[in-house]
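User: For documentation purposes, I need each entry recorded in a consistent format: the amino acid sequence on its own, followed directly by the corresponding structure tokens. There are two entries in this batch. Please keep commentary to a minimum and don't merge the entries.

Assistant: Recorded as requested. Entry 1:
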Amino acid sequence: MIALLDYGAGNLRSVEKALRFVGAEVELMQSPDRLKDAAAVVLPGVGAFDDCVNAMQRQELFEAAKDFAGSGKPFLGICVGYQAMFDHSEEFNSSASGLGFFRGNVVRFPEGKGLKIPQIGWNQIEITQPECPIYQGVDNGSHVYFVHSFHPKPEDDSIAATRTSYGVNFVSSVWRDNVFATQFHPEKSQHIGLKILENFVNLVK
């Protein structure tokens, strides 16, 4: 069973639908009680960093998610769920602390590059770790769907699984051991996104 953390994220149902489409048994979890029984966890998210982190803390999912990520079982963060894996965000001068599973901060795209912020739409990923399990069968240069104004800036560049250019070249997904996280939305990325989710689901089959 894959636990989909339900703390009020707007993209929850579309992520659930995509996971079920690729063969996953999914359970929405609003509390940490059964999280230890899950074979994998997905942390979705749209909106603001603070809202995500504070909602997780209210529902006692914050420490539970951090513990699960350190358990060795597969863990996937999506969009704001990806950003929440880092230490802090400069969004709205946020004072909230992220999960801190990866060192680094979440920063805004720079102004003055002639590009609209937020980035909304399709963009390419450069796969920098071809051995990453969730990118097996995914072509380098594939297009995926983004909706964001901020992106993490990892302290350790070796965790970068993909990079994307939008005014700046940024880390669009990361991978370390059992933990994966994407700035883009695989659930909105059509066949490429479904392949990525299928690869993740296959880690627990």
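Entry 2:
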Amino acid sequence: MKPSRIFRNIPRRQMKKQIQQIIDAVKESQRILIVGHVSPDGDCFGSMFALGMELERQGKYVRTSAGEGLTDKYNFMRDYLNCCAAKDLDEEEFDLVIAVDTADDYRVGSILEPIFKKQPLKISIDHHMTNPGFSDINWVEERSATGELIYELLKEMDAPITVRTANALYAAIMTDTGNFIYSNTTPETLRLAAELVSIGAEVQMLAEEIYNKRSLGATKLMGAAIDTIKLYHDEKIAIMYADYAMIEGCGAVPADCESLINFAREIDTVEIAMLVREINKTRYKVSLRSKKYADVAQLAGFFGGGGHHFAAGCTLDGTMEEVMEKMLMKAEELI
């Protein structure tokens, strides 16, 4: 099948035609794998679960997988659908694989990537504009969250939006907009959120689970990571880190690092914030955020990563010090 891409500025009629390709592919498939990116966040989990629940309702055999599976922050979705680690997929065969919120095929992770690539038909649904269109059918459109696209797809399917589906979609949109305060929050984003609330999305529960609850280990990690913050370039660049010794010493887990970067970003003088997290002794994940003008997707792109103008990431090899030095040198070019 010839790859296709969808952007917001194409005619609505053409967009609906291409969305119909996705619906037709789903109808013709019985065994469907839905995958997300490594270090999955709320948009990744929420998009996977909302789509997966509908496909199960249609009688499909559905498996979902991202990273090491569902993290504690999103435990409220544990009863919605099973999300397994890639290693637990074994040798299962699928008719169709759908990647959601995933900017490139390598972002599904080293274990899941070969499983993804061998499937006979691949679909990508994503809101990262750095996405090259790596599947047979690609819906890549700039929205606040992939959850917006999944909601639109479900409506095109005439799918019933249950309270659980509304919760998953609201969580997807809420987390990628920083609880609706980031610059990617649009009038359309707020309209969709209002629709989900009217359906029954449990706003108070979602905010409590995602933003107002953390383990003691995660709380200790916050303090330890904040202590690592250093400022550069007239205090416009902030770098912080979390290595395995710190994470384990605090009794935390890698998933607890997800929101640490916000503490660096919130410093009043800072334009670019970076969090360097140890994957192993020679590989590091770098999360990037900016506030007003710096394009951190461009910064991530220098190192093979990607994302959005104000939120992006990449993975680098080397020592912690080497990675920080490389990132700082490139970041200074954007200030």
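Summary note for entry 2:
The domain at 216-334 is CATH 3.10.310.30 (Diaminopimelate Epimerase; Chain A, domain 1).
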